[in-house]
Design goal:
157 residues; 2 domains; four-stranded mixed beta sheet; 5 helices
């Protein structure tokens, strides 16, 4: 395996509209992906231009190109991120208060009506102060006797 020489030209940012592109003559940004990104951020409440990183590219099954960084002023836009975040990437900083349990439950009721999350949130809140056997009695009552035997517990313990 040979040694790969680094690009001779440094990556330098260039701002085009609402997109800041980090590329070089040796590693140019894909114009189709740039177009998709520019259209995708049009009208968004950007805090700064969107950023296209050096490995910027389009994946056919994603809403937006990969390897982008976007900061908005006051909204969270799921289409700016992929559900397949990897390599340690994550959405980390939001200058907003943590939503209440009721707000989270309401969000899922409105956006994912078939989601069991609102039910599970209520149940988890109710069960958090209980011990293991009490939780088991609530979620799988028929399993309590077997758990008591497996744990070596006698009646009354």
């Amino acid at each position: 395996m040979g040694v790969i020489d680094p690009p001779t030209a440094a990556l330098t940012p260039a701002v085009t509209g609402n997109v800041r592109v980090f590329d070089s003559p040796e590693l140019p940004a894909d114009p189709v992906a740039l177009g998709a990104l520019a259209v995708g951020v049009r009208g968004a409440d950007l805090a700064a231009p969107a950023v296209a990183l050096p490995d910027f590219h389009v994946k056919g099954d994603k809403e937006m190109p990969s390897s982008i960084a976007i900061a908005t002023r006051s909204t969270i836009r799921p289409t700016f991120s992929s559900a397949s975040l990897n390599c340690g990437m994550a959405l980390v900083a939001l200058d907003v208060d943590r939503p209440s349990e009721a707000a989270v439950a309401d969000f899922f009721r409105r956006t994912e009506p078939s989601s069991p999350i609102p039910l599970f949130l209520s149940r988890a809140k109710r069960l958090v102060s209980k011990d293991f056997l009490e939780v088991l009695a609530d979620i799988a009552p028929d399993a309590v006797a077997q758990a008591r035997v497996a744990g070596g517990l006698r009646d009354g313990e």
